[in-house]
Specification:
By secondary structure, the chain is α/β, with parallel strands linked by helices. The protein has a single domain, classed as Hexapeptide repeat proteins (UDP N-Acetylglucosamine Acyltransferase, domain 1, 3 Solenoid), CATH 2.160.10.10. The chain is built from 5 helices and 17 strands. The strands form 3 sheets. The chain has a 7-stranded mixed beta sheet. A 5-stranded parallel beta sheet has the order 1-4-7-10-13, with no helix packed on it. A hairpin with a 5-residue loop joins strand 16 and strand 17. The longest helix is centred in the last third of the chain and has 15 residues.
């Protein structure tokens, strides 16, 4: 419980916080700061718990809720009614669907969805296109995603192979560094068949 310690919330510029958004101040044990970057949108009833670190250009839809000590990278979107477990990290340019339960880290550039336990459904292709990623850049990320999550290799071995195959590619390096820093574990990916099925129009 808060006992009057010198902790705080920091909020950048040009953010939109809608009705009944709550943001808890940091704790002494967690570094003392809960932070929100700039140019984000937190829709109605969003909750951001203590010691969370949110980047720039983040969108959180209605009633999305973050437990303590969560990190979210720049240009990421969290769907409505989604809950995220404490200490989880969500990378840059991630899209998380609505009504999801996130219990493990979500790597940069990916799309996650699912109710009881969210899984990776490939790249956040639409989001990357909207942010100006070229076709070649997205193709390289997709190839790296398949190597990391769909070849059957153990995580450490897949990372080792990706470092060799994608040497010098900054986007892939960002994913690999993120994965190597995990403490919660990395969310698993569905099969490519399920990804294609998910992409079909209803």
């Amino acid at each position: 419980a808060y006992k009057g310690e010198p902790t705080k919330v920091t909020i950048g510029h040009d953010n939109i916080l809608r009705e009944y958004v709550t943001i808890n101040r940091g704790t002494v044990q967690g570094g003392g700061v809960t932070s929100l970057g700039s140019k984000g949108i937190l829709m109605a009833y969003v909750h951001v718990a203590h010691d969370c670190r949110l980047g720039n250009h983040i969108i959180m839809a209605n009633a999305a809720s973050l437990a303590g000590h969560i990190t979210i990278g720049d240009h990421s979107v969290i769907g409505g009614l989604t809950g995220v477990l404490q200490f989880v990290r969500i990378g840059d340019y991630v899209m998380v669907g609505g009504c999801c339960a996130i219990g493990q880290d979500i790597p940069p550039f990916t799309f996650a969805a699912g109710g009881y336990r969210a899984h990776l459904y490939g790249l956040n292709t639409v989001g990357l296109q909207r942010h100006g990623f070229s076709t070649d850049r997205i193709a390289s990320l997709r190839k790296a995603f398949d190597l990391l999550f769909r070849t059957g290799h153990r995580t450490a071995e897949a990372i080792k192979l990706a470092k060799k195959e994608f040497k010098g590619q900054e986007d892939v390096a960002k994913i690999l560094t993120f994965m190597e820093g995990t403490k919660r574990g990395i969310s698993r990916a569905v099969s490519s068949d399920l990804e294609r099925e998910f992409d079909q129009p209803v």
